[in-house]
Amino acid sequence: MTAREIMEYDVVIVGAGPAGLSCAIRLKQQKPELMIAVIEKASEIGAHILSGAVIEPEPLDELLPGWREDPPPVCIAVEKDEIWLLSQKGRRRLPTPPQQKNHGNFIVSLGAMCAWMANKAEALEVDIFPGFAAAEIRYTDEGAVGGVIIGDMGIGRDGEPKDTYMQGIEIHAPITILSEGVRGHLSKQLIKKYALDKDSDPQTYGIGMKELWRVQPGKSIPGLVQHTAGWPLDSMTYGGSFIYHLDKDRIAIGFVCGLDYQDPEFVPFEAFQQMKNHPMVKEMLEGGEILSSGARAIAEGGYQSLPKTEMPGALIIGDSAGTLNVPKIKGTHQAMRCGMLAAEHIAQTSSVDGFDAKLRDSAVVKELHKVRNIRPAFYKGFWRGFIRAAIETVTAGKLPTTLSVHADDTSMRMLDGYTSPDRKWVERTLPPRDRLASVYFAATAHDEDQPVHLQILEPDVCTTRCVAEYNNPCTRFCPAHVYEMVDDEGGQQLQINAANCVHCKTCDIKDPYQIINWVTPEGGSGPNYQNM
Amino acid sequence: MKILVGIKRVVDYNVRIRVLPDGSGVDTDGVKMSVNPFDEIALEEALRIKEAGNAEEVIVISVGGDECQQQLRTGLAMGADRAIQVQTSEPLQPLSVARAFLKIVEREDPGLVILGKQAIDDDNSQTAQMLAALWDRPQATFASKLELNGSSASVTREVDAGLETIEVDLPAVISVDLRMNEPRFVKLPDIMKAKRKPLEVISLDDLDVTVDGQLGISQFTPPPQREKGIMVDDASQLLQELKNRGLL
Ligand SMILES: Cc1cc2nc3c(=O)[nH]c(=O)nc-3n(C[C@H](O)[C@H](O)[C@H](O)COP(=O)(O)OP(=O)(O)OC[C@H]3O[C@@H](n4cnc5c(N)ncnc54)[C@H](O)[C@@H]3O)c2cc1C
Ligand code: SF4
Fold it and tell me: Does A443 touch chain B if contact means CB atoms closer than 8 Å?
């Protein structure tokens, strides 16, 4: 193969989410002469973004003063908050804890907001490249990060170049920013290589699934923000739903559950669908249609799990580092602040050195510190968590203890000696019927003739140990039904329907043997979310 | 020789098309838009002709609002030399588009006009034929192979019965089918180069084109929903169920 073509930039940013775009805009505002590239694997900016999203507007006020006169395409002021504790058929209104009060916040489509931010960045002459995946890190001779390598295009399933083969280029830059969002594929490698997590707890995650609906006129009350807890989850599984009422008869409905769940037979997708079937929710959705749907993991480890964010030549920011505030389920304002802080640091010092200390002294980490014990308090079940959360909230996190955070891949119980809770799940009527019907609304697309981007490092484990110990949970936790056990001549085999993948990263996280490795497929592949 | 290639901005082929609740059109809010896939094939063919030394310039042209500049830039990044946007905010029907193309053809005097056989949004498959008629030049539609021999071209067409090869004198209008080629991927540095290539904007009004809506759209309706299936235990039950539904 010939040497790769090279492009040089001052800063290369991987991922056009709120973190990466805020960083790019801030850099150009402070040092217009810098050459900045933003690489995004989605075919369009925002097409891989899936969020709630109720956002706190302060970072937007700071980054783009005047944005309220020219708001992002979907942007509705929050009017009212409600929290409901559900039982299978009933419900009880709970008081809204302070961290979930949303007065002054806005309901947005984060995907549409990112496209809107990308326009602002381009107006400042940031070079944004959607449709290109940063597949590998480029290291300098000194062993520092020195940019990224863009994935090749036109390689067949067999690994051989096709007629359309196009070699990916190298982007060289003295500063690389990883803002890949949760469980970044390059961030994961860098955290390992530089042992960035040696002084922090393991990262822990949740899976979030979401559908955007157009409902019957009158069913959506623009500005209403609802959350639910309780049914259909057992008390040992952390999670709940969000129901955000938008304009134009639209409702964004989603469900988040902790990936530290124990039951190997649990199907997160089914829990989401069961929740939609609750009388309170079903009534809102009946007669409507799904506009878009998808899933994405959420980093829930917060303060205890925050790795070192700085290494030679590079920074990790936003959800890739894990700056999301879990009790609030809000990560956007944190990701944006992180991006701006990184930009200001680089503009001042022309280097990444010293950023980590600045971050830890910033509003981002202060916010994480306050709520640090709330999520781990739920390890012992819903009610104990609820009470501890109340105490932590009242004391604003000032109690001296810090609970530790556990990993998700070790939390699953083996079948032997474990009985799944009786979930009393009901027959449901609302679409989608199953995961395949759901993926359809994600409009996900991957050329089938490309290497499978879900690498199984030890395929034997699936058919020998995993089937006996956990009954192949990947066939259940993947929200897109990518993994299937099929009968083959030699017995059962794992079949990977990689084309359905919505890039949520759940498998990379939850697989108990840690043998699933998510890598970037051809640039432009993946979901095509609309207003998610 | 110059080659003119038409580029239409359409809803991406991966997107699930949804009809607006009031039936007035198709929902394009937040929907991914792309170059019509057949137009990409047309452009790929033009680029290959140029790379083989048989053309000097490839020009991409689109009729539409400013948002279609995005698709023209994609064309430039693929390798077109310059772009022309005929600017209008009105949705146009094929005859008006063909008339606008004709004006540009008269100005640019291309040896070949290569268009997609149809756009995947309204599936009209008319613009190429109308342009050829207005221009009074030969046309070869649904082409899957194109060979240039000096002042003429030999074109293999996909027809119902199989393949048909015809000779057309140049200049001519070619409309391309799916099997013609596989379009290239855009290279990242070429996106930067494309930003510096010329993109001329001409107002449709300035072209003196007659725009008349010969057709009116009364209603959009989605296809009927497929009903939920049932599982049958055996062949006799299957027969019974089919009979019950009057299908046998
Ligand atoms: C279901 C759900 C509900 C949520 N609700 C809310 C809410 O109500 N309010 C709130 O504030 N936050 C919410 N969040 C969290 C919020 O969405 C995230 O905190 C935020 O998006 C993080 O921003 P980011 O820029 O770090 O990463 P992301 O927004 O994830 O962006 C990362 C981008 O990088 C791209 N990328 C990744 N790897 C590569 C690569 N190797 N090469 C090229 N591109 C790459 C991705 O495609 C993506 O576009 C929610 C999240 C979920 C999943
Ligand atoms: S294969 Fe993995 S990343 Fe893809 S949708 Fe399934 S769980 Fe998510």
Answer: yes
